[in-house]
Amino acid sequence: MNPIIAELVRSEKRGVTYGRVSTKKQDIMKQTNTLNEFVNKYGCNIVNRYEDPGVSAEKVKLEKRTGFATLLADATKKQFDYVLVWDFERVSRDQEEHEFIRKKMGNLNIPILLIESEDFYDTGDLMSNAVRDGISRFRLEKIRIDTINGKKTVAQNGMWPGGRAPYGYKYNKANKRFNPISEELVIVKEIFERYKNYGSTFKMVADSLKKEEIVGNHWDSQKVKSVLLNPLYAGYIAMRRRKKNSRNSIQYNRDNWIMRKSLQIKDPVISLEQWEETWKLYLERKDIKPRHFTTPFYLKGILTCAHCEANLECKNQMTGKGKKEYGGLIYRCRSNSCMYKISLDTAHRLISDIWKELRRVNVTQFLGRISFVITHDEGNLTFEIENLRQSIAEKQELLKMWDEKFDTIHQENRTQENRTQENRTQEPMLIALSITKGVTIQKLDNEVRLLKSKVKELNKINDFKSDNNYSEKFMEMVNADWESLNSKSIRSIITMFVEKITVNRDGQLHYRIYKDLSED
Question: Is the pTM of this model over 0.85?
Answer without folding.
Answer: no
